[in-house]
DNA sequence: AGCGCTATTTATAAAAG
DNA sequence: TCTTTTATAAATAGCGC
């Protein structure tokens, strides 16, 4: 998409990143080439501060999304610009409320009363069930088996064999039906 | 401090970033040069997932701190590892509670009282997920297959075959380890 | 679990539109 | 204010300890 212009300059080999041994002509005679390091302290210029906020806010939300996907982590992020505008992110399959609830449980800090403990408890229970199935599924698919003992592997193997057997029977039924159908026509 | 070795390869002018047209001698005969892009999807290898989580978690908390300082923003971040360990950040001069209060005011979402809805919605969602996994599990175990089409059966078959293949590899590892152990004793 | 190393990939500060 | 561009600064994947 970028692939800017590059009016037919010629060969333009595959090299990239020609640093700038000689400044390849300043775009304008004028001054600033800049980009550069900044120290981590409040940006005084309000405009710059706003721009930087916008960029970094996007950056953080993106990072949050990435870690939640990559590492299967639960993440909640809430950001207010200095102007008071709100931005937030919450990992999929959960909610800020849920994360905060967990936060309370885990940190001991109480963010709100405990009216919803029971609902929460049910969610925990179901999620646990969920996790167990997830694990079983993974195992049947041959994933995450490093922690398994030989005995457990054998049980999985039996399950898989049984599955295949049943499945083949079923496939045979389909096959027979097909053959029968063809013969009759 | 770093300034590693670089045994006198020669002139080594000020250029950096010599990619690696020819690998300038591998340190050891051994293999891995690696580093590289990864796609944003769950990291299957548990160990890598944990390491990446740790690194990126630090990264996000750092970014949160930076934006809060640079841009005078209020930021709250809560992260749970997949193992359930909690990490969090909150900008200075405030607290998570205060940020959340502001969040409610600003977003209209009421985290506490309206939590019922989100909780029950979540329960519904999880239960549905649960059901789907249940079905998939049954299928892999060769149950409830009457409603499946041949094509679907084939997909299941492939899954089972893949599972068996992976599993046999794993069993082979156990076996090899056992043999090795016996021989050594 | 964490730190150091380095090649690469990303994020971004500045500038200009 | 948001976007695109470009040169730099940072983050980080895969190793090794």
TrEMBL record, chains A, B:
Polar residues composition bias: residue spans: 10-20
Record domain K-box: where: 116-185
Keywords assigned by UniProt, alphabetized: Coiled coil, DNA-binding, Nucleus, Transcription, Transcription regulation
Coiled coil regions, renumbered to chain: 116-143
Cellular component, GO annotation: nucleus
UniProt-listed PROSITE patterns: K_BOX (PS51297), MADS_BOX_1 (PS00350), MADS_BOX_2 (PS50066)
MF annotations from Gene Ontology: DNA-binding transcription factor activity; protein dimerization activity; RNA polymerase II transcription regulatory region sequence-specific DNA binding
Region (Disordered), start-end ranges: 1-38
Subcellular location: Nucleus
GO BP field: positive regulation of transcription by RNA polymerase II
SUPFAM superfamilies reported for this sequence: SRF-like
InterPro entries named in the record: MADS-box/MEF2_TF (IPR050142), MEF2-like_N (IPR033896), TF_Kbox (IPR002487), TF_MADSbox (IPR002100), TF_MADSbox_sf (IPR036879)
Pfam short name (any one): SRF-TF
Residue stretches making up the MADS-box domain: 33-93
Alphabetical list of PANTHER family matching this protein: SERUM RESPONSE FACTOR HOMOLOG (PTHR48019)
UniProt name for this protein: MADS-box domain-containing protein
Organism: Aegilops tauschii subsp. strangulata
């Amino acid at each position: 998409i970028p692939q800017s212009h590059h009016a037919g300059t010629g060969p333009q080999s595959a090299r990239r990143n020609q640093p700038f041994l000689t400044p390849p002509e300043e775009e304008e005679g004028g001054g600033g080439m800049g980009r550069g390091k900044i120290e981590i302290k409040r940006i005084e210029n309000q405009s710059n501060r706003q721009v930087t906020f916008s960029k970094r806010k996007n950056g953080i939300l993106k990072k949050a999304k990435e870690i939640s996907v990559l590492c299967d982590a639960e993440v909640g992020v809430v950001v207010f610009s200095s102007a008071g505008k709100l931005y937030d992110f919450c990992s999929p399959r959960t909610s800020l409320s849920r994360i905060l609830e967990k936060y309370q449980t885990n940190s001991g800090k109480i963010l709100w009363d405990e009216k919803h403990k029971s609902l929460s408890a049910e969610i925990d229970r179901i999620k646990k069930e969920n996790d167990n199935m997830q694990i079983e599924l993974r195992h049947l698919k041959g994933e995450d088996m490093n922690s398994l003992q030989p005995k457990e592997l054998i049980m999985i193997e039996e399950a898989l064999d049984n599955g295949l057997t049943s499945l083949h029977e079923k496939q045979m039924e389909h096959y027979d039906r097909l053959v029968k159908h063809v013969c009759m026509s």
